[in-house]
Design brief:
Elements lengths: L2 E6 L5 H14 L4 E5 L5 H11 L8 H25 L3 E5 L2 H11 L4 H12 L6 E6 L2 H15 L11 H17 L4 E5 L4 H14 L5
Parallel strand pairs: 1-3, 1-4, 2-3, 4-5
Helix pairs in contact: 1-8, 2-3, 3-5, 4-5, 4-7
The chain binds thymidine-5'-diphosphate (TYD).
Length: 211
């Protein structure tokens, strides 16, 4: 059983890599399920829409943080914990570290408050491994623009933030990874998906989670 989380700036390729890892786990007959934050539950999906919508009723930074935490609390209790208790693996597109990078780093909310709220929402549940897909803000922007052009889905409220904000988020992730190398694995998101996958699988074999 392992709880693995993918983190990084938007456009870093988290979901593509997560889907590739899922295929490998399927080939090895490893029971696993995927989720994402914010969202992953009915309540979480409703909160996701409220959090990311642009317009006059946008939440304040503190309200935004509490909404991410509410989505997280619901996901942990009703979805993640039961699966881990049954011995299944869980792969998640974002988790508590995103609140540290985006709300503490990006929005300048006191880090200790975010640490406390994360602990409250997760009841202390921690991923076995955080995989950080590190990408520059320039490259992240370029990829987001390509995605918008090809899917005609407009950028959300967080994506629309200035470069300064995204630079603070990136620095926040890198700081978390640097301070906890046992829990974090950093890969350059400029690599191909297959190369990133190879590095991630090697790290997972070190933990003896995979053959
Ligand atoms: P994500 O699903 O990764 O975005 P997308 O579907 O566009 O790839 O995440 C939604 C946004 O929410 C993203 O910009 C990051 C942000 N976020 C926070 O600011 N704090 C958090 O705690 C989480 C989980 C996400």
């Amino acid at each position: 059983m392992a709880f693995i989380v993918f983190e990084g700036l938007d456009g870093s390729g988290k979901s593509t890599l997560m889907n590739r890892l899922s295929q490998i786990l399927k080939d090895q007959k490893i029971d696993h399920e995927m989720t994402r934050e914010p969202g992953g539950t009915e309540l979480g999906d409703k909160l996701r829409d409220l959090i990311l919508a642009k317009g006059p009723h946008a939440p304040t930074p503190r309200a935004e943080l509490l909404m991410y935490e509410a989505s997280r609390a619901q996901l942990v209790e009703t979805w993640i914990k039961p699966r881990l208790q049954n011995g299944g693996w869980v792969l998640s597109d974002r988790f508590a570290a995103s609140s540290l990078a985006f709300q503490a780093g990006g929005r300048n909310i006191n880090e200790a408050d975010v640490v406390w709220l994360n602990h409250f929402a997760t009841t202390g549940l921690e991923p076995d491994l955080y995989i950080l897909l590190d990408v520059t803000v320039e490259e992240s922007k370029r990829r987001r623009k390509n995605r918008q052009d090809s899917t005609s889905v407009a950028e959300d409220r967080i994506e629309a933030e200035k470069d300064d904000f995204h630079n603070r988020v990136r620095d926040g992730f890198l700081k978390l990874a640097k301070n906890n190398p046992k829990q974090w694995f950093v890969v350059s998101a400029e690599l191909s998906t297959e190369k990133m996958l190879e590095l991630v699988l090697a790290r997972m074999r070190e933990h003896k989670w995979l053959k």
